[in-house]
Amino acid sequence: MPPIPGSGLAKGLAVTLRTMTKRSHTAQYPDAQPELPPRTRGVIGLFEENCTVCMLCARECPDWCIYIDSHKETIPAVTPGGRERSRNVLDRFAIDFSLCMYCGICIEVCPFDALFWSPEFEYAETDIRDLTHERDKLREWMWTVPAPPALDPAAEEPKEVAAARKAVEKAEAAAAAAAAQAAAAAAQDAPTTGPGTPGTPGTPGTPGTPESPAGGTAR
Ligand code: SF4
Ligand code: SF4
């Protein structure tokens, strides 16, 4: 059956009338910031204090877009005759976000919790070369990483939290014991005050010289 002339127009007007009184859901970015889910993969933040330059993230990155430079530093022995130690010092940590495909493998494989997802997404550039971001910028993004969700109250205490708690308790117990010991020593050294016991009478001695009388006082 051929369509009735003008029925399409009537349908369109009906839709317009139905929706024109409803509230719009369009967010007018950048005037209105989008409400992003907490686990948004916006950009990668680096907590460089945790990075040991193990290179695992750079090796596992499928796009080879993590650039790390480092050098070795020798730490002198702490005890006489001890062994010198060496550690890696981070010189450069950069990620090329024009190559990154936001797979998250680098964050997953990092054994020292040095990489995190940040929801920050406003880092578009007009020149693709400016999308390689160095450690200072990655560190800045670190402070935009949301706090982890609260633990399930019935969950087992994480090992690192338990270890930290035990260390604090041990330190507090040691400090309390030292304070108690110091207080006991101070109480022992303090001179006895108050009425006290009557003194023992002096024994009669030999008469001394006028300058330094010796012996007890005879009554
Ligand atoms: S998210 Fe994936 S592609 Fe991007 S740097 Fe990490 S491992 Fe490489
Ligand atoms: S895997 Fe983690 S600790 Fe190792 S180099 Fe990468 S960020 Fe640093």
From TrEMBL:
The keyword Translocase belongs to this UniProt entry's keyword annotation: yes
A Pfam match: Fer4
Catalytic activity entry: a quinone + NADH + 5 H(+)(in) = a quinol + NAD(+) + 4 H(+)(out)
Entry EC no(s): 7.1.1.-
Subcellular location: Cell membrane
Top enzyme class: translocase
Database matches in SUPFAM superfamilies: 4Fe-4S ferredoxins
Disordered: region residues: 178-219
InterPro entries: 4Fe4S_Fe-S-bd, 4Fe4S_Fe_S_CS, NADH_quinone_OxRdtase_chainI
Chain positions recorded as [4Fe-4S] cluster 1 binding sites: C51, C54, C57, C110
Gene3D superfamilies named in the record: 3.30.70.3270
Keywords: 4Fe-4S, Cell membrane, Iron, Iron-sulfur, Membrane, Metal-binding, NAD, Quinone, Repeat, Translocase, Ubiquinone
Names of the cofactor(s): [4Fe-4S] cluster
Membrane topology: Peripheral membrane protein
Residues noted as binding [4Fe-4S] cluster 2 in the record, renumbered to the chain: C61, C100, C103, C106
Assembly mode: NDH-1 is composed of 14 different subunits. Subunits NuoA, H, J, K, L, M, N constitute the membrane sector of the complex.
Family under the similarity heading: Belongs to the complex I 23 kDa subunit family.
Function comment: NDH-1 shuttles electrons from NADH, via FMN and iron-sulfur (Fe-S) centers, to quinones in the respiratory chain. The immediate electron acceptor for the enzyme in this species is believed to be ubiquinone. Couples the redox reaction to proton translocation (for every two electrons transferred, four hydrogen ions are translocated across the cytoplasmic membrane), and thus conserves the redox energy in a proton gradient.
Protein name (database record): NADH-quinone oxidoreductase subunit I
Gene label: nuoI
